[in-house]
TrEMBL record:
Domain Major facilitator superfamily (MFS) profile: 1-446
Lineage: Bacteria, Bacillati, Actinomycetota, Actinomycetes, Streptosporangiales
CDD domains for the chain: MFS_LmrB_MDR_like
UniProt superkingdom: Bacteria
Name of this chain's protein: DHA2 family efflux MFS transporter permease subunit
Length: 452
């Protein structure tokens, strides 16, 4: 499953690096190019809530194979696209497949763990999500610099083919409920609601902030639809599309809040760091992507120990230490000036990666702690959605802050360094806020006391 999932997480970050190249070679304006990303994200967001019903009705293996085949078809279509319109349509197909794959992977691996060694199980689940934003820009930079844009999508094909073969051979068929009923009203409320929120957040940069109609209207409409879904899900006698009553569990609600904030901590800063190396350090896009690689090394160093320590000590202490280390690794960027040595920032990225690797795993473990098997798919949908929206929200907020600071510091690299420094302090602040919320995660002692 990891083989197929890597195609999804790499694809998103690789395409982001190549947007300028795509616009230039396809001869389309920025407003059209943005839909290559926006269309993908909207399809992904709308697909996620359906995974609970699909896995119940058809079984996890069939849904996984179908989703991976859909992503493969979208990748091949995108690589052969003759124009921007066809490329956008193929990206929507990719997004639908990717939106199904990631929560299905979470659900099946947690259910396979069956409550045992959840920390080590979630260490496996978290690997693609942690490595994608770090290694994707490196791969994207290499492709943009040395190959044609079509290879951005061809690179997915080997991962998809290998993933299909491995899943067909080794995955069990999984449990099925042939009588599972689809919550059509919930589907009509939740999927457009999530899509509207993501669309509004994607327009923050183009609109110049949160106060414009093209941002506010979809955000308000989306929030209203999601709120209506939540009220109906709480009152219905049947099985809702997503069981929001899980949020009444203190451990799960704390983990959900932290999944939202982790989107700020991971994806928000991943917007800033490559831009810092380019605008302050004077590096090209490929070099900036390569300089991000040490963060991936840090993630790999801490991923295994974080899973083991979570099983032994509980989620709270591991998360708190991980967030503190992440903040420590971000501080050099907040203090850095244009003359700072690159090796110092590279070392900071290793530290930051160690912290990130130790954060996501205990949070996800806490989200699944003590859940009955049939509630795991609902938990996967909620946590996946909150992380995605948190990432979009964090990126939008930091983009607005950075643009504001750059407008106040319109000079050369020294002024740009000051603007980035102030913006990185916001990233540190979000990390500290997440550290405060982590106090509500369960400790090992709490789990024993409650008999879970």
């Amino acid at each position: 499953m990891l083989t197929g999932a890597l195609a999804v997480v790499f694809d998103t970050t690789i395409v982001n690096i190549a947007l300028e190249t795509l616009g230039r070679q396809l001869r389309v304006p920025v407003s059209t190019v943005q839909w290559i990303t926006t269309g993908y994200l909207l399809a992904l967001g709308m697909a996620v809530p359906t995974t609970n019903w699909l896995t119940g009705r058809f079984g996890g293996k069939k849904v996984w194979l179908a989703a991976l085949a859909l992503f493969l078809a979208g990748s091949v279509g995108a690589s052969l696209a003759p124009d921007a319109t066809t490329l956008i349509v193929c990206r929507v197909v990719q997004g639908a497949g990717g939106g199904l794959m990631l929560p299905v992977m979470q659900t099946l691996l947690v259910q396979a763990a069956n409550g045992r060694s959840l920390g080590r199980a979630t260490a496996v689940i978290a690997l693609p999500a942690l490595l994608g934003p770090v290694l994707g820009p490196v791969l994207g930079g290499l492709i943009v610099q040395h190959l044609t844009w079509r290879w951005i999508f061809w690179v997915n094909v080997p991962f998809c083919l290998a993933g299909l073969a491995l899943a067909w051979r080794f995955m069990p068929s999984g449990e099925r409920d042939r009588d599972a009923a689809l919550d059509w009203i919930g589907l009509a409320l939740l999927c457009p609601g999530i899509a509207a929120i993501i669309f509004g957040l994607s327009r923050v940069g183009a609109g110049g902030g949160f106060g414009h109609a093209e941002v506010l209207l979809p955000l308000v409409a989306g929030a209203t639809l999601v709120a209506c879904f939540a009220v109906r899900a709480l009152r219905t006698d049947g099985t809702p599309l997503v069981d929001v009553r899980l949020l009444g569990n203190s451990s799960f609600s704390a983990a959900s809040a932290l999944m939202f904030l982790s989107g700020f901590v991971l994806y928000g800063a991943m917007l800033l760091i490559p831009l810092y190396f380019q605008q302050v350090g004077g590096r090209d896009a490929l070099t900036a992507g390569i300089l991000l690689a040490p963060q991936g090394i840090g993630v790999l160093l801490s991923r295994g120990p974080a899973g083991t320590l979570t099983d032994r000590l509980g989620a709270r202490p591991v998360t708190a230490v991980g967030l503190a280390v992440t903040a420590l690794g971000t501080l050099p960027f907040a203090w850095a000036g244009p003359g700072i040595e690159t090796w110092w920032l590279v070392a900071a990225l290793v530290v930051r990666g160690i912290g990130l690797g130790a954060v996501t795993i205990p949070i996800m473990t806490s989200a699944y702690e003590g859940l009955a098997r049939d509630r795991v798919p609902h938990a996967s949908v909620i946590t996946r959605t909150l992380q995605q929206i948190g990432g979009s929200f964090g990126t939008a907020v930091l983009a607005v802050v950075l643009n504001s600071e750059l407008a106040r510091h319109p000079g050369g690299p020294p002024d740009a360094a000051a603007a980035f420094g102030h913006t990185f302090w916001w990233s540190v602040g979000f990390t500290v806020l997440a550290l405060a919320v982590s106090a509500w995660l369960p400790s090992r002692l709490t789990r024993r006391a409650t008999g879970r």
